[in-house]
Design the sequence.
């Protein structure tokens, strides 16, 4: 068995910044366990209910951060925020490409609030994740500091082998967040796992569709009241399993075997 220290180091630094030395690779391989499965978990509206209170604050924070960065009024900031999110998958990408905004400063300013009173999630989540055999990796388009804060508040930080935030989703110097197939291939290569061993667990169907195209198994976390669930009452062919919670995933994961 590989020593525990390398795995702890993985949790303390961004996944894409960890040097893939022999000890780290061996620790990752050992983390696969008997199941050989790697679970790639999204964060917002997957591990916790972001639509409950956090999304409105993120939207407001991003709008104000655009106002501060570009010197525009609120209406124009809202327009740009939505335009760049729709075009690139993340507002920050458009701001960097078209306005030269500092990405790290923008991500900090737009998520500068206390998440503790806002987070809502199913009970007993740490034990439920530990009961899921295989290695867990967080893969979120959200900023890493925000993701860490949410996981820490939920008691989940120690459940994850590595963490990927949007800061680590760069290829050839350019942001490539989900649903980029190139990003997903890069993550799998860095994690040392073949597509057939990996499962992406998401609330966003575009990301799941992209994952299926490169050979991953897919789990759709479906909540009728969340933004990405509207208009999708049936399970698409590229989704292996549809669940509404981690508890549901534990009970119904049989179709993902093999």
Sequence:
């Amino acid at each position: 068995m590989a020593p525990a220290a390398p795995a702890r180091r993985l949790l303390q630094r961004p996944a894409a910044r960890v040097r893939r030395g022999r000890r780290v690779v061996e620790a990752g391989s050992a983390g696969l366990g008997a199941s050989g499965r790697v679970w790639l978990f999204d964060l917002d509206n997957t591990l916790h209910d972001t639509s409950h209170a956090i999304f409105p604050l993120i939207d407001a924070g991003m709008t104000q951060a655009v106002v501060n960065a570009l010197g525009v009024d609120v209406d124009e900031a809202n327009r740009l925020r939505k335009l760049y999110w729709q075009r690139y998958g993340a507002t920050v990408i458009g701001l960097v490409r078209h306005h030269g905004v500092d990405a790290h400063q923008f991500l900090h300013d737009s998520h500068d609030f206390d998440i503790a009173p806002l987070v809502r999630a199913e009970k007993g989540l740490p034990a439920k994740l530990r009961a899921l055999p295989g290695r867990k990796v967080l893969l979120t388009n959200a900023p890493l500091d925000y993701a860490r804060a949410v996981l820490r508040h939920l008691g989940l930080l120690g459940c994850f082998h590595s963490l990927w935030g949007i800061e680590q989703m760069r290829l050839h110097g350019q942001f490539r967040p989900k649903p980029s197939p190139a990003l997903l291939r890069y993550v799998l290569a860095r994690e040392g796992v073949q597509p057939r061993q990996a499962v992406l667990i998401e609330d966003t169907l575009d990301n799941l569709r992209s994952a299926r195209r490169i050979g991953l198994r897919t789990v759709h976390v479906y909540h009728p009241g969340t933004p990405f669930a509207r208009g999708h009452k049936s399970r698409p062919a590229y989704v292996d399993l549809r669940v509404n919670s981690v508890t549901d995933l534990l009970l119904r994961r049989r179709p993902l075997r093999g």
Remarks:
- The longest strand covers residues 135-139.
- The CA atoms of residues 16 and 190 lie 7 Å apart.
- Residues 1-14, 16-34 have pLDDT under 50 and may be disordered.
